[in-house]
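Handout, section B. The chain below has 398 residues.
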Amino acid sequence: MGLYKYYSIPSDRMGALWTLLSIRGACILEFGTAGTTRFALNNFHKMKGVQNGQLYTTHLDENDIAMGDVRRMDKAIDDIVKEGLATNIFLMSSTVSSVIGIDLEAYCYIYREKYPQINFIYISNDGFKGDWTLGVKNVLETLVAHIPKEVNRSEEFTYNIIGACADDYNYEADCMEIDRIMKAGFNGENICTLTSNTSINEIENMGAAHLNIVMRSEGEEAAKVLERNFGTPYVIGRPYGLKGTLEWIKKIEEAAKISINKEFVENEEKLLKEKIDEALLVSKNSSVCLSGHYDVVRSIRDFVRDEIGININNIWCSSPSLSTEEVPFYEERIWEEIILKGDYDILMGNGVVTNIGKENSKKLQIDLPNLVYSRDEHVDKAYVGFKGALCILDKLIR
């Protein structure tokens, strides 16, 4: 790991743990030392993650490392099964056990033969494969490949949300807005929100849905697995702003072959247009710096540029794995210089970025990490959908 002034980039192992921890009924067993597991938990709670799953670690000593001894793991699994603590056990390596070459995937086959009533699932993210977004992507795909069961399609219109995870800033309020639009617009019912608010049982029933709504790039492969296995169509994208939300709704209508409640849309559109007109008077021709998750900053850029007339001073994403020419990833020294010396009126980014921004600029947090831990600060303040656009506009006008 390099030297960082503000914060380091989480590894794929951190992303995998954060994605699994919120699942009710999940049992995660990490073959490794306890210290880094505690680090993952601490950061998970600072992100406002809700831990519904169980997390255990075997711990390791020098003899385990030198001899490749797995008796601690055997004993841990025996205890978990004996106590009836889980029907699905996710086996993960730590960076230490990966270095010594323990083949956990092979051990999953051994444990399945010993305990046929338990679903052992191997999670390959060990901290060496890249940044946290790769861990999120792998876990989402692994979950839908191993857990959903053959079920009948529901009679009423239902959907799943894929990619709303604890590392996604404001995920709770954003999911509430998606559910509100789907209920009021399509009379739709949510089967599973993967993974911020779900259970093993809900994941098992994902195949009953008529549509999968993918909230981030890392969830597309999972949606493709569900499409192959259950024939479920999917839409991908985050609905920011009026134009972005209407386009997102159109994609849902086309994919699910269903029409939205026009009266609902007209009422929402009327309220939002009034606020956009107000924002145009205040913010037009101002400039913004955008920093955060690739999908978030790209979609917010389109909203503020195309609907409010705000100029894009600079834009970059927080993950090297998601970097593109359109939205690049910047090293810390580069984005620090942009923030400290840049010519902008509005700054959107994580808690650290907004904290060091120019005092006379308007600041809006759209990404993690948080600078100050707060459990309730952003509940009911969505950034996506109709309500989310109103919230962002209110913050820009103030």
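Note. The radius of gyration is 22 Å. Compare this with the example in section A.
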